[in-house]
Amino acid sequence: MTAFPELIAFQRDTEALSQVMGRLGWDQETVMPRGAAGQRADEMGALESVLHARRTDPRIGEWLAKSEAADAEGARMLALIARSFSRSQCVPARLAAELARTTSLAQGTWAEARARGDVQHFLPTLRQVVMLKREQGQALCEGTDAATAYDALLEDYEPETRAEDIAAIFDRMRPRLVALRNAVLGSGKIPDPLRGEFAQDSQLRLARKMAEAFGYDFTRGRLDLAVHPFSSGSGADVRITTRVVETDPFNCLYSTIHEVGHACYEQGIAPQYALTPLGQGVSMGVHESQSRIYENQLGRSAPFTAWIFAQMQQEFGDFGVDSPEAFHGIVNRVQPGFIRTEADEVHYNLHVMMRFDIERQLIDGSLDVGDLEEAWNARFLQDFGVAVDKPAHGLLQDVHWSVGLFGYFPTYTLGNVYAGCLMQALRKAVPDLDAQLARGDLAPATGWLRENVQQHGGLMAPREVITRACGAAPTEGPLLDYLDAKFGAIYGL
Fold first, then answer.
1. Side-chain half-sphere of 54: how many Cα atoms within 13 Å?
2. Domains with residue ranges and CATH for the chain
């Protein structure tokens, strides 16, 4: 008799508890009172101890040995449970709990340091996080086939991928991105930025309209404000956040569309996979492919920005832009900037490449946390030709390292690469896509993505999902060709 039903029932409770922990994280970022940070850290540590004990429960090994899968779905579930069990056993319970507690505290410390513009307030806490992540990476490295501690950490976000593979992709991308940037900036055709004041309530109304247009189901989600926008949850409870800058409505609108891409992936997974190993996105690279194709290839396209232009006029009246064509140019304005999340498509991947190099140095110990700000500022000046003017525009802009997400950053560019391939396939599958986008009708595009990517959840390995959807293995070529064509047309290159 197979032990498969017992194993899956046990796993279901573990997945449910993991969702509860994720909900605590959402609460911390949105509505938790500031004075609760210390208690929340203890709560997160306690819950992580429970989860770690479940993930390393000896019965899992016994059940795995006695389990037989009836189909491909069952086989994949067993493979994912076995992988999680093996990796969890490598990490001591003490370390798992301390990581959860420390990163919960660090998140609040980062937010305080960012608001105060005080890097020194954050560095001691970041040093603790880095030391714990090095220890975790080394423990995983010793217990798996990962070549380095960083590779072991990367595996949590993009399974079956190594840093050397990512570095090779980035090395191939960088020359074309730099050449395109130089051509655009040298064209003499950079439009002025959008100017004016755009009330928060109006921005949020428009953001909600954008979310609904892209198919986000508000009966299974909600939209809130956060310092750093994110998506949280899966299945029947998938929440998104955005942020508002009253002089820059694009910040709110495109942060929302981006997070809706993540959320629609989770909402689009086949319902029968809920609270199983298949019930979440298979990797952060595939996740980013959804958020980036929603935000950029669809959301910043000429036909869809024409539709947004009309919505902006309805909400704000005459806001100083006289045509859909001019609006499209402003939405896609190329300009060196400090903030990764606000970067145009030409510069965005250069931001990611910088962080990828720096975080590898932090984990392998070749860069000390005490020297991090200087290293960041020097690399930024080298790559972007602009000196960082304040910490919130530099080292303190991203939340990732404070919460221990080392290995996460490169998945942003992997997501862009995957999105480039998916968009190429989507255009072949939906020949009249532009006409639909011009009407604000995203259903054919998002429906294709749901059918070919989202519904599968964790059923296939990351590259297999993209390969099956596109009919060919993913490469950086389609993304770079898309960028050259799009910005070449906008800037007359």
1. 19
2. 3-143 (no CATH), 144-197+260-492 (1.10.1370.30)
- Per-residue pLDDT of 393-433, as tens digits, reads 999 999 999 999 999 999 999 999 999 999 999 999 999 99
Cα separation of 360 and 143, whole Å?
A: 20
Q: Smallest Cα–Cα separation from 488: which of 181, 37, 245, 65?
A: 181
Alpha-carbon span 377 to 386, nearest angstrom:
9
For 33, half-sphere exposure in the C-beta direction (CA atoms, 13 angstrom radius) is 3
Using CB atoms within 10 Å of the CB of residue 269, give its burial: 0 to 12 exposed, 13 to 18 middle, 19+ buried. buried
User: Phi and psi (nearest 5°) for 411?
Assistant: -70, -20
pTM for the complete prediction? 0.95
288 is in an annotated binding site: yes
Question: Which pLDDT value is given to residue 340?
Answer: 93
Please check if 262 is assigned to a binding site. yes
> Rounded CA gap, 72 and 64, in Å?
16
For helices 284-292 and 410-429, angle between their N-to-C axes, nearest 10 degrees: 60
Residue of 359, 211, 216, 341 whose CA lies nearest to 288:
341
Which structure tokens are listed for 372? 């991090």
Q: Are 196 and 321 in contact (CB under 8 A)?
A: no
442 token code pair: 């995203």
Residue of 27, 29, 232 lying closest to 111 (CA atoms):
29
What is the set of active-site residues? 259
Nearest in space to 178 (alpha carbons), one of 296, 347, 338: 347
